[in-house]
Amino acid sequence: MHVAPVGGTAVQDHVALAEIELCGELIIAASAAEERLSLESIDEVLKVAEERARSGDTDA
C-alpha cells in the first residue's frame, strides 16, 4: 500500500472544496426540514441572491 507523504504536498482544489461545502449546507438544511426543500429554499441555502448581487447580475 502506498501512503502519501506528509508535509504539505496535497493539492487543494478550491472549487471542489466550495462545492463540497455547499452540498453539506444543503444536506443540513434538508435534514432539518419537515418537507422537501423548495427551489426558493435551496437558493436561500446556496445564497444565490447574494452571489448575484455581488456579481452585478440583475436577471432573476
Q: Describe it for me?
A:
The termini are far apart. The chain has three helices and no strands. It is 57% helix and 0% strand. The radius of gyration is 17 Å and the shape is flat. It has helices at residues 14-32, 39-45, 48-55. It is mainly alpha-helical and 60 residues long. The model has no long low-confidence stretch (mean pLDDT 84).
The description of the largest β-sheet is: none
Strand tally is 0
Structural class: mainly alpha
The string of secondary-structure elements, in order, is HHH
Cα distance spanning the termini: 51 Å
Estimate the mean pLDDT confidence: 84
Helix coverage percent of residues?
Answer: 55-70%
Uncertain residue ranges: none
From the spread of the alpha carbons, the general shape counts as flat
